[in-house]
Amino acid sequence: xxxxxxxxxxxxxxxxxxxxxxxxxxxxxxxxxxxxxxxxxxxxxxxxxxxxxxxxxxxxxxxxxxxxxxxxxxxxxxxxxxxxxxxxxxxxxxxxxxxxxxxxxxxxxxxxxxxxxxxxxxxxxxxxxxxxxxxxxxxxxxxxxxxxxxxxxxxxxxxxx
Length: 161
Known about the structure:
The protein is of the alpha+beta class. It folds into two domains: 1-31; 32-150, Protein of unknown function DUF192 (Jelly Rolls, Sandwich). 24% of the residues lie in helices and 30% in strands. The protein has a six-stranded mixed beta sheet. A two-stranded antiparallel sheet has the order 4-7. Strand 2, helix 3 (59-64) and strand 3 form a beta-alpha-beta unit. The chain is globular. It starts with a helix and ends in an 11-residue tail after the last helix.
């Protein structure tokens, strides 16, 4: 096949792929309108309060979490999706704000809560204490310190997302 023919087929394939992608997106019903909606999940608490949580699924994101953040809006959080239900202790290395950490099993039932967890001032991750993680969990929600108590969250409650 000549180079001109290859170029024609390559451009044609690009157009076909773009058309297929547009059709798929058009058929998805209600579409997210912002990047924030594409990368976050709305978590609804038993009392009806909603939190928009950044969604962490990839290993680098799971490891980085809330590191290097100076603040977190009151109606925001971070939701971690672990690949399998297992014990998942968390630490506060290079996290700059106090947090509540909420562990959930595969049914999204709360199995543990660490409230008012302070940042770790150590320059070494190994010197930072770990929290929770004794009970197998599939999901972890991090929110501002005091949020769990303010909203009456307790072990056994289920969150919706």
